[in-house]
């Protein structure tokens, strides 16, 4: 190997000597062969090859044809191709290469080559393809490069500069591909370019070219063009008509220049146009009518011009469109309903126009990623959005319009949403409770959108939120303590609302917080001193609240400007005039006898509804007596039903036989049996499961029978799941169900319910005859087993564990009720549906099944309810009143009582039957309620057990409206859990 800098003359003579000894395969032409070897060795000697890729280039060889990256013509033994792409070579393209007289293709792209492009490169007589892209080449482009033999010339992404030589394209009639993109080239584009009649690909983008190439270079005469990219230059002037002469044009990119006047009116006459980008120019006038002929177009961008006229109504017919950007113009008119036809559309931005009317609901049935309709004059409501949208949408900006009405509940299902901006509208809506549910949500901007209600507790369940802006609404209630979960938050801005309570100490956990804006609210108490520890805080404003007391020491509070603190009741700062009030905490009062009318010390609901409930309380009592009587009648019926159910559960049918039989028998019955489909939500391999359920059921073992079906435990194979154990529920249905659409949609909604206290639904298997639900398997069994079917060997549950189960169950249920609209109602709250993990964390299962089954088979439901007797709310049993989440709260109340007393909801004696709920109520009235506490749990704190029992009785109130919401239940349980010393006053 010749070291770099070895005298070339010496090298040359050595090579000659070597070559004459060996010859090329003993044949003629050895001198020319030596030229190739010599040329390559000399070429290499100017390069630095850090990874020794060119080590096989041995100057002792008489032919380079076996060297790596070198290709020869086998007939002549001459080098025809040299491809050294991406080898991290640096240095200059020196002499030597011109020796390769038969070279057709030279590709040195994606290296670190520097220096000028030597005019001698054009001495390679037969070069057709030259690729020097993505290097660090500098200087001017030699005019001889585009000589007659060359077909592909790619000099993009270098640092070439200066104007192009005027005569550069004098003889370029073979040139098909020319890219000079991403350099520092300037000046006019030479007029000789119009001679490159074979050119199909022209890319001059990202330079500093100026002038008007369409006039000066006659670009429209290059009729073979397929792609033309002049974007990101400083080209100017009008675009004349005539583009339609380029019949096969597929891509036209003129964005980011200074083109003016109107868009070419014959643009629609290029029938094959796929991508069209006129954005960021100075175009005026309307979008050409001929655009409606562009049937293949997928990308259509005219954003940031000065276009006017009406929004093209034909856009809905361009069904191949994927990307529409008309933003930043002055387009008027309405959005056509036909936009719902754009099934391929993923990106839609129309922001900053004058579009009015309403958003076509069909638009929200598309699989869009990004929707920006901001800063228009849209009115009406926000459409709900279909399952497709909820699977795809990542960014939604509807800000700055005149939209009204609720934020649709379906938004809670937008699982990929990162950016949500509905600010500056007139929604007049409640603060959406499901915000905390978005796993990836990073920015929420709901400023000035006429929202009311309180900030949801779970706003940061996913902890991805970075920006939360809720300023200028009518929000009430406190800043939730859970705001401390927003660990990614750096902008928290809640100003100009009616937020009350004190500033939560947990804000001090937001280590990334930079900006905190709380001005113009009703916040009271002292600013938590812990906030002084927030080191990244750059701006704080707490002015115009009811704050008192000292400022935190440290951090930004040292130098807080008085304007950020004024207008409070008495903040103590030497910088502020006026009073300084030290804070005395207000005791939190919990009045147990006020339950049912008013919940606890924190009053979150509206005062007026509470007081009306209060005043009608006595009238309701007599109704409740009536309901109690009818409930007693029902219970008698229920006893019979229960015995029937028990008999049927004993007749357990083997799952596999049963399932296979149903598949086989029906396939003989109807030849056109639709194939089974196994859908796993979080698996990439949700393949159609044509071969039937055998492989799934192979190892299945029955583990229980519930009201809605039999439960099996099974391990999914590696190819379907990840080899984990899953629980499979075979749903009871009486009919053959033909349509899977409803089922799929409903199960997917349930699948979205993810919470630490919910048993996640993993997927389903569907055939018309059989529906299976696949969920996680909970290894520690159910609360039913631990509480009521405990073997003598396992220890009884302690009070702390029971409390943990209660609180967790309440949280899971609260998530179902408050994070979905409409709420997911469990309908079947009972210990057997509370599963436990290793640490006794409860996980609710079977939620929402009734609704699901109702979709499938209306007959099933009425027959199944009675099996949960004792948990069923009276109004449900009567089936005359509206069924809502209050039914679950009743069931939860009964569950509390079972946990406290260790007794079943209904116990059957020799002759009588004890309804737990009534029993405890009587004991409480007699003042001996502690008598019924489960003695097996040993020591327990009365100050916790007593309020929990009272809570249970409020939950099982006969009057649905007297029962608290699950959110209130969670709050009350959390207050009960706090050590007594922290509470000012207990029950
Ligand atoms: C090119 O050179 C620069 C600095 O000289 C170096 O940082 C870079 O990694 C090199 N690139 C390649 C592809 O070798
Ligand atoms: C040149 O090389 C680059 C990178 O290797 C490649 O992307 C490009 O298509 C090549 N140009 C031509 C004209 O083949």
TrEMBL record:
<dbReference type="InterPro" id="IPR017441">
    <property type="entry name" value="Protein_kinase_ATP_BS"/>
</dbReference>
<dbReference type="InterPro" id="IPR011009">
    <property type="entry name" value="Kinase-like_dom_sf"/>
</dbReference>
<dbReference type="Pfam" id="PF13855">
    <property type="entry name" value="LRR_8"/>
</dbReference>
<keyword id="KW-0808">Transferase</keyword>
<dbReference type="InterPro" id="IPR051420">
    <property type="entry name" value="Ser_Thr_Kinases_DiverseReg"/>
</dbReference>
<dbReference type="Pfam" id="PF00560">
    <property type="entry name" value="LRR_1"/>
</dbReference>
<dbReference type="InterPro" id="IPR003591">
    <property type="entry name" value="Leu-rich_rpt_typical-subtyp"/>
</dbReference>
<keyword id="KW-1133">Transmembrane helix</keyword>
<dbReference type="GO" id="GO:0005524">
    <property type="term" value="F:ATP binding"/>
</dbReference>
<dbReference type="InterPro" id="IPR013210">
    <property type="entry name" value="LRR_N_plant-typ"/>
</dbReference>
<feature type="binding site">
    <location>
        <position position="730"/>
    </location>
    <ligand>
        <name>ATP</name>
    </ligand>
</feature>
<dbReference type="InterPro" id="IPR000719">
    <property type="entry name" value="Prot_kinase_dom"/>
</dbReference>
<keyword id="KW-0732">Signal</keyword>
<keyword id="KW-0675">Receptor</keyword>
<keyword id="KW-0472">Membrane</keyword>
<feature type="signal peptide">
    <location>
        <begin position="1"/>
        <end position="26"/>
    </location>
</feature>
<dbReference type="Pfam" id="PF00069">
    <property type="entry name" value="Pkinase"/>
</dbReference>
<dbReference type="GO" id="GO:0016020">
    <property type="term" value="C:membrane"/>
</dbReference>
<dbReference type="GO" id="GO:0004674">
    <property type="term" value="F:protein serine/threonine kinase activity"/>
</dbReference>
<keyword id="KW-0812">Transmembrane</keyword>
<dbReference type="GO" id="GO:0006952">
    <property type="term" value="P:defense response"/>
</dbReference>
<protein>
    <recommendedName>
        <fullName>non-specific serine/threonine protein kinase</fullName>
        <ecNumber>2.7.11.1</ecNumber>
    </recommendedName>
</protein>
<keyword id="KW-0433">Leucine-rich repeat</keyword>
<keyword id="KW-0677">Repeat</keyword>
<feature type="transmembrane region" description="Helical">
    <location>
        <begin position="620"/>
        <end position="645"/>
    </location>
</feature>
<keyword id="KW-0067">ATP-binding</keyword>
<dbReference type="GO" id="GO:0051707">
    <property type="term" value="P:response to other organism"/>
</dbReference>
<dbReference type="Pfam" id="PF08263">
    <property type="entry name" value="LRRNT_2"/>
</dbReference>
<keyword id="KW-0418">Kinase</keyword>
<keyword id="KW-0325">Glycoprotein</keyword>
<keyword id="KW-0547">Nucleotide-binding</keyword>
<feature type="domain" description="Protein kinase">
    <location>
        <begin position="697"/>
        <end position="976"/>
    </location>
</feature>
<keyword id="KW-0723">Serine/threonine-protein kinase</keyword>
<dbReference type="InterPro" id="IPR032675">
    <property type="entry name" value="LRR_dom_sf"/>
</dbReference>
<dbReference type="InterPro" id="IPR001611">
    <property type="entry name" value="Leu-rich_rpt"/>
</dbReference>
